[in-house]
Amino acid sequence: MSNLKNLTGPLSSNNPVIVQILGICSALAVTVKMEPAFVMGLSVMVVTAFSNLVMSLLRNGIPSRIRIIVQLVVIAALVIIVDQFLKAFVYDVSKQLSVYVGLIITNCIIMGRVEAFALGNKPWDSFLDGIGNGLGYAAILLIVAFFRELFGSGTLFNIRIIPESWYIANGGFYSNVGIMLFPPMALIIVGAIIWVHRSFNKDLQEK
Amino acid sequence: MAKFNVNSNAYIIIYSVVMVVLVAVLLSVTSLSLQERQGENILNEKKQQIVKALGEDPATASYADVVAEAVMLDKNGNKIEGKTDADIFAALGDLTASFEAGEFPIFKAANGSVVIPVYGAGLWGPIWGYIALEQDMNTVKGIVMDHSGETPGLGAEITTAKVQSEFVGKTIFEGADFVSVAMKKGGATNNHEVDAISGGTKTCDGVNAMLKAGLEGYLPYINANKSNE
């Protein structure tokens, strides 16, 4: 049962973005549309899961003095592999994500979980913890991207939701909310999610 | 594991070396095995941009439908024989070197219009594009531009359909003189100008320089094929 907790904990009560407040920068950058947010979430999940797994397998043999360097090499190698796969299989999305794929290396969630969890736990638990944290990150990204894409562009996953005929340009009454496309709006939405989340989870509220 | 002293210098050095070699091998294998597919994607994107420059939608019209022939020109505007499509697309990867070597790739559509690749510098990094001319070699049929690092919302607006569509119908000749087409701060005043992007002046200057320098290299060909009305 404790295995399962590693997986589900990070989804809500220990969410990396809205509780641990990690990985905010990329959450602002790639959430203009659902599709890049989805691919980014998936990529981060793969990297957290496998870096946790690899580091957990190596944990007894790593010289503690070069621990951080070993972590960085493992994470960087995984990120480069993910980047290569994106370039080969979803080239459009890889172009949209541009530098942010490379910046997964610096995503605090990954090193945070390796350092805090994988170095002290068994491989399978660590792997689940990585999947859980990746999912928790992806979930927040998708929620933010949902609002930003729907109100900023009138689409979801590039499929039109708000009819063209509603737009002022076509004689309607509606116009896209331009600020949704700018990074500050992502921060505001993340803030709103934290607010809603904490009002349901009283134990997370600071006294 | 407990038998070793995992903090001895010798162990740390051996550990680092083995780890780095293993990672290097892994990355090389991944890169090599995916290279072909990545190359195809990049080639495909170039073809789509050429199709878009000709005013067709890449979703419905393929490169093969739209472009009749890809040709390499020398600096006098004559066709260089013996260049394959692969050579021509390879030249697009480094246009500066190709122009310097006196090789000018051009794409001819079935209806006589042509697509010319251009390359230049924006504010933060390189910008590039494809400009299509009508059969008269004077009127702009369409343009596609892209960039690597221009400011979102300002210079990066050159990639939007709104900016690119303004170029359509502009002319690059005033009488017999080549004037190129330029983004003009304060608004277009004649048929060789389009509105510049406010806040994106440096990028617009880069676009102007890119189009002028790029088209100039093709002038011998353009002049030879221009219809004089």
Overview of the molecule:
The complex is a heterodimer of chains A (207) and B (229). Chain A is an all-alpha fold and 207 residues long. Chain A has a domain at 2-138. Chain A has helices spanning 2-8, 24-29, 34-58, 67-89, 91-97, 99-102, 108-116, 123-153, 183-200; strands at residues 155-156, 159-160. The radius of gyration of chain A is 19 Å and the shape is globular. Chain B has 229 residues and is of the alpha+beta class. Chain B is elongated. The interface between A and B is medium-sized, with 21 and 22 residues.
Average pLDDT taken over every residue of chain A: 85
Biggest pleated-sheet summary of chain B: 5 strands, antiparallel
Q: What's the tally of helices of chain A?
A: 9
Termini separation of chain A: 31 Å
Terminal CA distance of chain B reads 86 Å
- Greatest contact pair? A-B, 21 and 22 residues
Mean pLDDT of chain B comes to: 86
Structural class of chain A: mainly alpha
Oligomer: heterodimer
Q: Order of strands across the biggest sheet of chain A? A: 1-2
Order of strands, widest sheet of chain B: 1-2-3-4-5
Compressed to H and E, one letter per element, the order of chain B equals HHEHHEEEEHEEEEHH
**How many E-type strands of chain B?**
9
**Main beta-sheet strand count, sense and barrel state of chain A:** 2 strands, antiparallel
Strand content of chain A: under 5%
pLDDT below 50 for ≥5 consecutive residues: which ranges of chain B? none
